[in-house]
Amino acid sequence: MTDYKFTAGDKVALVTNSANANVRGGIYTIIRRMPASSQGCQYRAKSALDSHERVVDEAQLRRA
User: What is the pTM of this model?
Assistant: First the structure.
């Protein structure tokens, strides 16, 4: 069974690095869990700044 750290409604901070430099960092709200990929757990998250939604890996997220 896959252990997800976050659930729908959680506020998280998206951490950017050289691998995802084109992604806007900041505060996001978890919309829903996505099926786990080979890289681990993934989520659908919505930006608090511009309401843009994206799929993000759990490794990119920290609790806000």
Answer: 0.86
